[in-house]
Amino acid sequence: MAQYLEVKAIMVKAIRMSRTGGPEVMEYVDVEVGDPGPGEVRIRHVACGLNFIDVYFRSGLYPQPLPGGLGQEAAGVIEAVGAGVQYVKVGDRVSYATRPNGAYSEARVMPAAFLVKLPDSISFDTAAAMTLQGLTVQYLFRRTFPLRGGETILFHAAAGGVGLIASQWARALGVTMIGTVSSDEKAALAKAAGCAHVINYKTENFVERVREITGGKGVPVVYDSIGKDTFIGSLDSLAPLGTMVSFGNASGAVPPFSLNELASRGSLTITRPSLPSYIASRADLDAAAADLFQMVDSKKVTIEINQRYALKDVAQAHIDLESRKTTGSTILIP
């Protein structure tokens, strides 16, 4: 049975944009949020996640209808549910990491299909900091290129939110992770998280270092969220028959390239995965979330929230993210 609050509409603060561009296009405004329709819920956010994919939508690299909201990750409490919603009820603690955009808000109405129920052991802040990034590492390591233990891998941006989770997860799996970073401070963070070898790409040639570490063989897989700046180097770091996993564009989109680039390096494979494809069904989402929660509950993975910003200060958060000043996870507090 659908459950509703007596108030049919509420006014909340939210980030909206009517055009794409720099951080200045994000506006902190009042918006009206009504009751959920069939298959929808209204969720009151306690914390919102900040992710590089938000920058892609803000800049226009990824298109979306405008005017519109921004943000794909948040954690909070269900305030109302619409007809046909059975998985969650009013009062449930939940998180999500999915489209449609609009997580940068105090509350919102959204589809209920991809909400994750939070165990009591996971705080709202932790959930907002790890749902997208943690589920990303889960699918990268478990499904895109399944790691069995004993492999040596290359993972770019090892001190970011995804990278620090990956460093710990790799160590737990018995995988030797080579990580790249942009500073000595970030190198120390990645090393402490479990990254076996850390390369400062500002002062070292990461391709040469990977070959040195692997005795000239290269690695069987590269996980690359940087894009344009690291793409060719990532291919050059692979062993024959290796797999290039390109899952982000922090430095810009990968330019067009010839498939001969793959053949000439030893019949490489390339894939461009994204989280929505891996959590498209309830069963897949539940399994992935359970795996992530188990890793966190077991203390094999600790979520590092190294930056907190008020929602109204989101422009500064984006500036710091794009300038590579942030480490670990960042959350926005409505």
Automatic annotation (TrEMBL):
Gene name for this UniProt entry: qor
Q: Is Oxidoreductase one of the keywords UniProt gives this record?
A: yes
Q: Where is the Enoyl reductase (ER) domain?
A: 21-332
Q: What is its EC number?
A: 1.6.5.5
Top EC category: oxidoreductase
User: Which GO cellular component terms, listed alphabetically, does the Swiss-Prot or TrEMBL entry include?
Assistant: cytosol
Q: Which Pfam families match?
A: ADH_N, ADH_zinc_N
How is this protein named in the record? Quinone oxidoreductase
Which key words are in the record?
A: NADP, Oxidoreductase
Species name:
Collimonas fungivorans (strain Ter331)
Tell me the GO molecular function terms: mRNA 3'-UTR AU-rich region binding; NADPH binding; quinone reductase (NADPH) activity; zinc ion binding
